[in-house]
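Worked problem 6 (solution included).
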Amino acid sequence: MDFECSDPSVWKEALSNYQSRIQSLNKPNLVSLDDFYCSQLPSLLLQRSPNPHITTPELSKLMQWKLTRGKWRPRLLDFVSSLDDSLVKSASQKAFGSLPDISKAISELTVLKGVGPATASAVLAAFAPHITPFMSDEALEAALGNSKDYSLKQYLLFASKLQAKAKELSTEGDPFTPSDVERALWSCAVGTSQASQLNQDPKTNPSKTSKRKRKI
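Solution. The predicted structure is:
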């Protein structure tokens, strides 16, 4: 699926495959971590109104989700898990209160050790999926053609593009959020990667084996 695609049905199909893609990765605890991030955490944050915030244990679990769904970087988990709870609560409260100023909200969270713009975006996306998408490598690559730059400047450009795409795809009575766009892009990227691996596997594609034999 191309990022420029403007057919809502194509995007909805990609989004509907998200859960099965999560399961197909067969990573330890990913299904339960994804349920926590997508379903449980948003409710917990909203229940804390008028002063919503995230706690250190919740941030640690969010980081586990982020690293398990993407690339595993254990040092980041260590940093986040050892953060003082009062600092995490204060920083996240200020961040949530800064929205819809995304730049300020990200900056409030990145004062925490181990929290860069990508992790900060995951925190904000759990609280305000209609404003801030998670900065995943897969969605970053699809939207901007580069998944190596995790700067605030890059995130603001990324968020702007996903917000515009969400607006474009939303139909009356059937809204699409920037977070929906991110999950659809992630789902599509994982599906494409898995299909490519399957095609390269001699067990599932005998032609690959016969080609190798002819070359020998």
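Discussion: Confidence is low (pLDDT under 50) at residues 208-216.
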